[in-house]
Design a protein that fits this description.
It contains 12 helices and 19 strands. With 358 residues, it is α/β, with parallel strands linked by helices.
Length: 358
């Protein structure tokens, strides 16, 4: 079958090959025919070595498709079922799951160390234990979450990561208060989803911050009340909050420099939500005095900060009701053969989300 492979960490191009085989099928596992997958910035980060990932590997973790085959002991899935790929499934029995913090379950991360594919040249891993830039993937049954028939594969794919992450940051992690002021730094697919979440919660002012003009324009369509480039954030802070700072600031870039800016843009007693996934060696520096004196809450948000399955259901319900726009997030579509074009669209910022049709 065909899959897009990164041969070595640090390379910036993928090689679309037709000699890749999905492996690992057996009891408790399912084989999925991937129909659509989104390109998330985390894929680029893994390719560059910012996020830890063994190689060679097939990127992609934001996918949807249909079940081809189920292994023994799989009771709730059957061939033909439409599913979204969940890269962070909950085991249900670890301490985090028992506390109700299923987004902190480590079971899914353990899958990342086992090869998902093989080629004549050897084993190939799948990013985050999945690898959806392929025609088929084999995953644990818990990674395949059924979706209703009326949800298109491209919409389902977005719900598998970016939408759930951004919406959840606003709805779950921050629990944005109605009438509040919000700034979102980084307005790709995840940032736009955070903007939609803040709008749903009734934020009075939502300032979108991004260096790319087309993304700023998109942010206004999705609910931002003001959109500025990074060098306009200080003026926006002054004009919107009288210089005090925003009630909530979402950092959706994953860099210490933007996180520091986000901290400084948050009012005393306000909330900084860290959504972007950054590098292990990129440290955010804060003094002990400012932590004490400013009393700002710093809240990391992992995969939307809530139960993943419930978050999927909520996103579908909001989409059906017309309360959130998911189709509008897909600004570009490319076939798997043109995956490197999608990478360029992400790197230059011209795309909110590119859908790879497989």
């Amino acid at each position: 079958m065909r899959a897009a492979v990164l041969h070595e960490i640090g390379q910036d191009k993928l090689d679309v090959l037709d000699d890749v085989e999905a492996v690992g099928f057996g009891p408790g596992r399912v084989r999925i025919r991937v129909r659509a997958t989104g390109l998330c910035h985390s894929d680029l980060s893994a390719m560059a070595g910012v996020l830890p990932q063994p190689g060679p590997f097939v990127p992609g973790h934001e996918g949807a498709g249909e079940i081809v085959e189920v292994g023994e002991d799989v009771r709730d899935l059957k061939p033909g079922d439409r599913v979204v790929v969940c890269w962070l499934p909950a085991c249900g029995s670890c301490p985090a799951c028992k506390r109700g913090q299923t987004q902190l379950c480590l079971a899914g991360f353990l899958n990342a160390g086992t090869p998902n594919f093989k080629r004549p040249a050897g084993d190939v891993f799948g990013f985050a234990g999945t690898g959806t830039f392929a025609e088929e993937v084999v995953v644990d049954a818990g990674c395949a979450v059924p979706i209703p028939d009326d949800v298109p594969f491209d919409i389902a794919a977005l719900i598998g990561c970016g939408v759930t992450t951004g919406l959840g940051a606003a709805l779950n992690t921050a629990d944005v208060e109605a009438g509040s002021s919000v700034a979102v730094i980084g307005c790709g697919g995840v940032g736009i989803s955070a903007i939609q979440g803040a709008r749903l919660k009734g934020a009075a002012e939502i300032v979108a911050v991004d260096p790319v003009a087309s993304r700023r324009e998109a942010a206004l369509r999705f609910g931002a009340t003001k959109a500025v480039p990074p060098d306009g954030l200080a003026d926006a802070k002054q004009s919107v909050t009288g210089g005090e700072g925003f009630d909530y600031v979402f950092e959706v870039v994953g860099r210490s420099t933007t996180a520091r800016t986000a901290y400084e843009t948050t009012r005393r007693g306000g909330t900084l939500v860290v959504v972007g996934a950054g590098a292990l060696d990129d440290f955010l520096q804060l003094s002990m005095f400012e932590l004490f004196f400013d009393e700002k809450r710093i809240l990391p948000s992992m995969y939307g900060g809530g139960d993943v399955l419930r978050s999927y259901e909520r996103a579908i319900a909001l989409w059906r009701a017309g309360r959130i726009d998911l189709a509008g997030l897909i600004t570009h579509r490319v076939p798997l053969a043109d995956i490197n074009e999608a990478l360029d669209q992400m790197r230059t910022g011209v795309a909110l989300r590119t859908c790879i049709e497989i």
